[in-house]
Model the fold of this input.
Amino acid sequence: MPISLRYRNNTLTLPPIPRFDTVAPHPDADSALPHPSTTRHQAAPRRTFAPVLALSALAVLTLFLLSFLVGPYPIPPTTVARVFLAQLHLAERTWTDAVEMVVLDVRLPRIAAALLVGAALACAGATYQNLFRNPLVSPGVLGVSSGAGFGAALGILLGLPGIGIQGLAFLLGLAAVAITIWLGRSFDRHATLVLVVAGLVVSAFFQALVSLTKIAADPLNQLPSITFWLLGGLNRTTPTALLTALVPIALSGCVLHALRWQVHTLAAGEDEARTLGVDIRRTRILLILAATLMTAAATSLCGIVGWVGLLIPHIVRMLVGPNYAAVLPMSALLGGGFLLGMDNIARFTGTFEIPLGILTALIGAPFFALVLARSRRQWF
Amino acid sequence: MLTAENLHFAWPATQPLFTNLSFTLRQGIPLVLLGPNGTGKTTLLRCLLGLERLHSGRVMVDGQNLATLSAAKAARHIAYVPQATSAAFAFRSIDIVLMGRTPHLAFMASPTSLDRAAAEAAMTRLAIAHLADRPFDELSGGERQLVLIARALAQGSPVLVLDEPCASLDIARQIHIIATLRTLAADGYTILMTTHLPDHAFLLAGEVAMLKDGRLLGPSPPAELLTAESLEALYATPIDLLQVQSGRARGQTLCIPIMPC
Done:
């Protein structure tokens, strides 16, 4: 596509020739620096985040492999490796059915779920932070977590099977956001920030409904189930549950990636972005849809796990800068890695698993404070 | 060329801010818009940019009604330079300037090396290429304003609308911005800026218009429209105009508000 910088009535198809003679040197220009005209004849090399991305991918891959060694049932690394090789018919089977089941049916889905959920929450968090131009926004901002929490609690109360609880959590998570959007529109059709207020209202309402469900629940069986679901955890993960969550998360991830430049420009603020050619309404609704689908799918799989969506995008911005095109894939990687690490700790603690939501808060909150202290940036 | 035809705008449940407001913005002749605080200068700019919905009237750019164009198409005709504020995230200057390429990209596309070259060229055009990799928030107010002008140039739109580009800048940066805008006007850009300092109208050597009580006076050459009487009426305060008779500023006209005793 030709560059069209317009001069008089002509449209130049190349970068225009700079005319320094007509522009006075800027008073801030440091005289020790060479004159700009002599230093930049062509586009500067594009700063790339590929090395950081590759290193992070390597680290997460290593963590992924090591994660198979964690758990109450000890399996040596060589056996784990050979179980996988045997799937490709490259190794002889010398282990029991129990070992194979632990590796392939218990640990693999759980490890994959940790990566998937962490990636989804971090990407949704990064997206909402850009959309609302507020670095302190988390994926639950529009009420999706509270809605999903109520859905799960209701599912447990009704005695639904695991997949039914997951489905109800997913649907009510989406319903909560739909109510938030409807409320926000009735306040003010155009403002984005009003959605945050509407989200607050909807969250509070659904949290009250969760409490109501708890009161109604049978205190011996249902109440502990509800409590543990709300604290988050991947111990219930089955391959079916994993695949059910994978589809909406992958789909939404593709949408967010495709819209990465519109999201970048949105960071200039809604009015400026509009004058820069962003179709605000279309972009906003697509972003909210994608981020909500992701969060609802992730939450319905593992319960309410906080801090990932808030903390990870901050760490990512410290590593690769604030450009959304870099923040999105890095958030997916580090979000997945972080949650996998947390879930490994949960599994490592042995007979009594610490719920995942408690762990991410216990480690995420002080870490977030550390990140804030280190980044030394003014936000407000 | 931009033509505003019979613009009518009112905030909900209030008196109209302006009715039947028309003017023409001509290529190469920068227009300075003066008016006291709260008179609707910014709202008028927002109406021109399509950020506010007009009750009636239309804004034509290059023969096209801006209200009927998509955001991307409108952005290729008219660019907005906001007052320099801080960004929500720690962007580098080049990341901000690159945003100007958005109207030239498909909905799902990202900038290419050509867009990068255009952004760099826009910064070079304003002699700020050395700021490309500096964080936007760490720049001085004047540098930030230039980065935002570079973003509008990268946008490639012939019309530039600037909201108080000299606000909160020191006098050296103010004069630098005015000189830059003069150069851009000479290069064929169509420019509209608002300001609180009538001197800028004389320095920019284009036309000037006054907005007060929903009526627009001008556009006219500053020497015709800006008299002590008209400025006193505009700002409702005693004002003298002073022509510099000697020295390097010879011929320049200064606007001096009279201190009440």
In short: Chain B is about 30% helix and 25% strand. The longest helix of chain B spans residues 171-186. The radius of gyration of chain B is 19 Å.
